[in-house]
Amino acid sequence: MIRTGFRKTDKHMQEVLKGASSALIIRVLGTVLGFVVSVMIARLLGAEGSGIYFLTVSVVMIASTVGRLGFDNTVVRFIAAHASQKEWADVYFVYRVAIKIIGLASALLSALLFVFASWLANDVFGKPFMEVPLQIGAAAVLPFSLLMIHAECLRGLKKIPSSQWIKTVLISLVCLLLLYPSISLWEANGAVISYAAAVIITAIVAWLLWKRVWVGIEKDQHVSSVSTEKLLQSSWPLFAVMMTGLVMQQAATIFLGVWGTAEDVGVFNIANRVSALLLFPLMAMISILTPKFSEMYKNDEMSELKKLARKSSRILIMLSVPIAALVAMYSEWILGFFGAAFIKGQTVLIILLVGVVVNAAAGAVGNILMMSGNERDVRNITFIAALSTVVMLFFFIPVWGSIGAAAAVAIGVSMQNILMVWRVYKKFGFMPCTVGKA
Hints:
The structure is a single chain. Residues about 1-10 have low confidence and may be disordered. By secondary structure, the chain is mainly α. The protein has 17 helices and no strands. The protein has one domain (about 1-430).
């Protein structure tokens, strides 16, 4: 029995590694393209122009996250679970409800962002020159929401490469092609135009990929057992998780936009993007682990889930620690590649690396909780971490600027992951990030 369980877990791990390998290759390509986009923006626009671009993208991310109402992980969870049982009527019902609700909410937020762009630019950020970029960015809110949901639906069907192409490659690729001529014509506004156009094109491609996959599935005829109420019961806690997670990701940029200069925003975001390079092995593995966790939990394979979580965490620790050390050692050279104005972000980068390593070491801990129906635990933990981060940002940024922002983010991310590891241990009786015997 033990030997059978071991072989079964090895089979699960092989599937994860195979899927993660293809996802990792695609994510590496996307990361390289994203890095090139950041380099071009930094070199063509400088720290201040980069700040305008990154601040606009942060506002778009906030609006889109609100518009998705927590459906990202909900569609993965329900589609993966029902697809594993070939319950295709349920799968399509989940997709249809998600698209309708998200489309309506995101369209409304896109309109609101366009209308209130002047108020945000003048009264919130105190930067009148942000009005036009924010109005341009409003055009990207709805298509970004739709492309993300299509990507997650494809991930639920284990179409990991297609999902990763949508989420990590296409936006950067199209943006890169449009960037130079757009910046030459319209400077910082041109960078935002390139981004918005890339999002719209990617959204169309995402819909075509989903349509192609769905047409090839042999459907059943039974009436769906899933209800809109059931989906919302899952998505609302996850919406709170996404919003608090959004605070972790975007609050530093927004607060620097309010209390700092556009140059501060640019320096912090370049350092943040460099540190985030370390997360692409984690993100690649999560893309295949998430539907696996949902499937294994539904089939009551908790022993295999435990072993899979611990093995994947061990791999992530082995990858993240040496890479972080190398980035820290050569941080001045790396940031100087973006331009001399960004070298001042060296300390910011090193601080952010600490949070990234803790995040990678914890593994897919949040996804274990979400795919096992413990969305409320994730919501509560992310709320505590997000609130702590906001409080720290409030006190740190006025005193230490971008360094204070980096410290708040690193501490908040570390707190969130440590609390989730503890919660998995209390809930299921194992430590997902152990380096001992699995």
